[in-house]
Specification:
By secondary structure, this protein is α/β, with parallel strands linked by helices. The chain contains 16 helices and 14 strands. It has two domains: 4-225 and 404-418, Glycogen Phosphorylase B (Rossmann fold, 3-Layer(aba) Sandwich), CATH 3.40.50.2000; 234-401, Glycogen Phosphorylase B (Rossmann fold, 3-Layer(aba) Sandwich), CATH 3.40.50.2000. 41% of the residues lie in helices and 16% in strands. The model is unreliable at 1-12 (pLDDT under 50).
Length: 422
């Protein structure tokens, strides 16, 4: 239930933005130049809304790739830093030594507490973020938009700030299909308390309403669009990296749920059918991926690590198909990037991705079973006309639903709805 302060008439309406600028404060654990999908998505939405005449500012904690979500956002947080990303002011917040000392017992209690007890420890940690958060805000704020990334502390601090300012709070949920139970209870309460919740797929909206108890009228579906370079050279990419054969591409962080290991497991069966093929992996490595690629002797398997936007775009443009059989995506924006370049895709066979990829129309879905994954890859390679049609169908889907203007307009509509009183 929303508290009495939430049942109010906000002092502006986003729908009047044609006559006046709206001041949006974004709060996200990660933000570019970090290459995480959530931060890139938020940045593109912010850029589009700024191009429409609104004002946007960002509070973040990470501008580089990290995965120490608890300690990296509290006791080991990076120092504060102000910068501008594509014209958008960004404030990376940090904490004084004194604040870290005050956080220390709460963070370690959170780390050791049973999952059911953790929600009790979130408010004191979030309150200790208050001075850093509020000190980073300059100028007027009409709406606060948070992202569910990492732990709960920054999203809760952002909502508390919105409540103190009597402005709407909207959160992008970024749910995975298997997020149930006490581990996620604090975020579930945050969704129910927010003035608006942004879902990326129809499945996610249904999940929020039916499983998390969020009022249906407060949930708005947007999606994720492609983040690609305007200028790229697929031939130069091949030459630069010595890729002489046709190749399939994996692009993502090399954690288990993304399916990079499943592709390696399927590689012998794929090569048995298509020996003149390469499998190219791109994206941030982990200790497990580094060790496994170092132990791989087949020259047809290539691990290129992290490359820049032009290289990423060129890699997608030059591949035969894109394969990321992930079972942990809320949406998977990289699928829209492959589609924009008319490439068929293989994604994980999960409820969330079934809302993104239409199996057999613009791509295929697979488990991590090596046999099934090899079968899906080799089917696309064996049926060039069908694969081409799937890539073209994907591009049409992007142009119809997932341009950044479409997504920004849907986000603006969520802001408008969030300003209305109960």
């Amino acid at each position: 239930m929303r508290t009495s302060v939430e049942a109010r008439q906000f002092q502006f309406t986003f729908a009047t933005a044609a006559q006046s600028k709206v001041n949006i404060l974004y709060a996200s654990l990660c933000y570019p130049p970090s290459v995480g999908g959530a931060g890139l998505h938020l940045h593109r939405v912010a850029c589009e809304l700024v191009s429409q005449g609104h004002q946007a500012r960002v509070i973040t904690q990470w501008t580089r790739i990290r995965d120490d979500f608890l300690f990296g956002s509290t006791l080991r947080a990076d120092p504060p830093h102000a910068y501008v990303e594509d014209g958008i002011p960004v404030q990376q917040i940090g904490f004084s030594e004194w604040t870290r000392r005050l956080m220390f017992p709460w963070v370690h209690l959170y780390h050791r507490a049973p999952l059911a007890a953790r929600p009790l420890l979130i408010p004191p940690i979030s309150r200790l973020m208050r001075s850093s958060f509020e000190g980073a805000v300059t100028g007027p704020v009409d709406i606060v938009h948070g992202m569910r990334t990492g732990r709960e502390f920054l999203p809760v601090a952002a909502m508390n700030y919105a409540r103190r300012q009597s402005v709407p709070y909207v959160i992008t949920a970024l749910l995975h299909h298997d997020w149930h139970g006490p581990r996620h209870a604090a975020f579930d309460r945050l969704y129910r308390s927010a003035d608006g919740v942004i879902a990326l797929t129809d499945f996610e909206k249904e999940f929020l309403v039916e499983q998390k108890g969020v009022a249906e009228e407060r949930v708005h579906v947007t999606g994720i669009g492609p983040v690609l370079a305007e200028n790229y050279d697929a031939a130069a990419f091949r030459s630069r990296h010595g890729i002489e054969r046709p190749y399939i591409l994996f692009l993502g962080r090399k954690v288990d749920h993304k399916g990079w290991g499943a592709i390696l497991d399927a590689a012998p069966q794929i090569f048995a059918r298509f020996p003149d093929l390469e499998i190219v992996f791109m994206g941030p490595d982990t200790p497990a991926s580094i060790a496994r690629f170092e132990a791989t002797t087949d020259s047809r398997i290539r691990n290129l690590g992290c490359l820049n936007l032009e290289e990423k775009t060129a890699a997608l443009a030059g591949c035969e198909l894109f394969c990321m059989p992930s079972y942990g995506e809320a949406f998977g924006g990289v699928y829209t990037e492959a589609w924009q370049l008319k490439k068929p895709v293989i994604g994980g066979d999960t409820a969330s991705l079934r809302s993104v990829i239409t199996d057999g129309v613009d791509g295929l879905l697979s488990s991590h079973d090596p046999g099934q994954l090899a079968e899906q890859v080799t089917w696309l390679l064996s049926h060039e006309a069908e694969a081409k049609r799937m890539g073209e169908a994907g591009q049409r889907k992007v142009e119809a639903r997932y341009t950044w203007k479409c997504i920004a307009d849907a986000t603006a509509a969520a802001y408008t709805a969030a300003t209305k009183s109960d």
